[in-house]
């Protein structure tokens, strides 16, 4: 990256991209779930409807590109490519945290995705450390369908230059829910959510949660890698995506729960929907695709993923997403142990 661009020489956002691409989680909770197959089908492939509804919108595709980047030259190029892919495939695309653009009005690494793709299904993202007025600015700039509020508590604690002040977060979240007119999603960043977290979020007025669990990107690993691995024993902090989904089961009908964290393929997407998720977010797996392939190749891959979701649903005798909730499954290993001890 040139020294003289508006983003400066050293950029945290670029560090995140580099370390995220390097990291492979040793354990993924989706491997602990087995779905029960049916041998006598009920539906034709053309009958299968993969559409989902959450945050006030219907989406034809059950998976989406979750928050990642913006705020650097490289982030801008990645956003441009991801937005193009999303527009072509009819996928929802969510930018990374808008706070970089709030600090730097010349930053167009976020706005460019809207400027270049007028019909893009777009969401944006901001931290719970911010005031709702910052959220209003992001909404005015990007005209998104909804706003994600990320809670990246553990990331901040491990980050050498991270925040140490958290006592305003609840008040800030309440400010968002009371003053922002478009739908909001409270979102983790890969550490998972417990039922206690969801209960608190509901008290603060949140109606949609992305439980973003452990198993894919680890921001503990990333921030440790940025500070010479000082706290590397914390790299596996948090709850997995499957455990988080199972933990918040009692809230599935009261609020909307979205899954993300460690989604690798269409089977992980369908497993999330079987566990009650209303939609499925993917970050690292799509970042890797866009880094290693041409835009056309990624469009082909993700179009195939949409088709593969239909194949798996057909194999499970599920005509639509709500049928998937009736699919039986077996849990193994650490996930089984966790659910037994937490008495879900
Ligand atoms: C992220 N993530 C993220 N989340 C968020 O709410 N705001 C953000 O700005 C970012 N930035 C970001 C950068 C990069 C490079 C990655 C890989 C991820 C977290 C992301 O949305 C997601 O919650 C986790 O990455 C877990 O999903 P995956 O990566 O395992 O699919």
**What compounds are bound to the protein?**
ligand FNR
The CATH topology is given as TIM Barrel
- Overall pLDDT confidence: 95
Q: What is the approximate shape?
A: globular
According to CATH, the homologous superfamily is: Aldolase class I
Report the CATH architecture: Alpha-Beta Barrel
What count of helical segments does DSSP give? 15
Estimate what percentage of residues fall within beta strands: 5-15%
Sheet bearing the most strands, described? 8 strands, parallel
In short:
The chain is of the alpha/beta class. Helix content is 42%, strand content 14%.
Account of the protein in words:
- It is a single chain.
- Helix content is 42%, strand content 14%.
- The longest helix is centred in the last third of the chain and has 21 residues, at 295-315.
- With 344 residues, it is α/β, with parallel strands linked by helices.
- It has helices at residues 12-22, 73-89, 99-103, 111-116, 132-142, 153-158, 169-179, 195-203, 219-226, 241-247, 266-274, 284-292, 295-315, 321-324, 333-341, and strands at 33-35, 52-54, 57-59, 63-65, 92-97, 121-127, 146-150, 184-187, 208-210, 256-260, 280-282, 329-331.
- The mean pLDDT is 95.
- The termini are far apart.
- Ligand FNR is lined by residues 16-17, 20, 66-69, 96-97, 125, 148, 150, 187, 189-190, 212, 216-217, 260-263, 282-285, 287.
């Amino acid at each position: 990256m040139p020294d003289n661009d508006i983003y400066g020489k050293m950029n945290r956002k670029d560090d995140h991209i580099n370390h995220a691409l390097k990291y492979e989680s040793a354990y993924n909770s989706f491997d602990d779930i087995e779905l029960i197959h049916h041998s006598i089908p009920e539906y034709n492939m053309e009958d299968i409807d993969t559409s989902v509804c959450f945050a006030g919108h219907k989406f034809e595709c059950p998976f989406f590109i979750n928050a990642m980047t913006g705020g650097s030259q490289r982030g801008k190029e990645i956003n441009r490519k991801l937005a193009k892919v999303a527009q072509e495939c009819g996928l929802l695309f969510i930018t990374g945290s808008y706070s970089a653009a709030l600090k730097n009005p010349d930053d167009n690494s976020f706005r460019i995705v809207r400027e270049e793709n007028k019909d893009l299904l777009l969401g944006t993202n901001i931290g719970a450390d911010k005031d709702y007025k910052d959220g209003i600015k992001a909404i005015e700039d990007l005209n998104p369908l909804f706003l994600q509020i990320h809670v990246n508590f553990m990331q901040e604690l491990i980050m050498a230059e991270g925040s140490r002040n958290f006592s305003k977060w609840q008040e800030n979240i309440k400010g968002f829910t009371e003053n922002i007119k478009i739908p909001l999603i409270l979102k983790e960043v890969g550490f998972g959510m417990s039922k206690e977290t969801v209960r608190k979020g509901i008290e603060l007025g949140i109606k949609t949660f992305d439980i973003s669990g452990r198993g894919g990107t680890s921001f503990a690993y990333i921030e440790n890698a940025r500070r010479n691995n000082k706290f590397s024993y914390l790299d596996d902090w948090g709850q997995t995506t499957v455990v988080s989904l199972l933990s918040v089961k009692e809230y599935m009908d009261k609020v909307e729960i979205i899954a993300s964290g460690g989604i690798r393929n269409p089977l992980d997407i369908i497993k999330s929907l079987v566990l009650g998720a209303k939609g499925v977010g993917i970050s690292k797996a799509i970042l890797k695709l866009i880094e290693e392939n041409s835009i056309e190749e990624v469009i082909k891959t993700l179009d195939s993923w949409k088709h593969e979701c239909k194949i798996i649903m057909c194999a499970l005798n599920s005509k639509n997403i709500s049928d998937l909730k009736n699919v039986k499954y077996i849990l193994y290993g650490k996930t089984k142990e966790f659910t037994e001890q937490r008495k879900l």
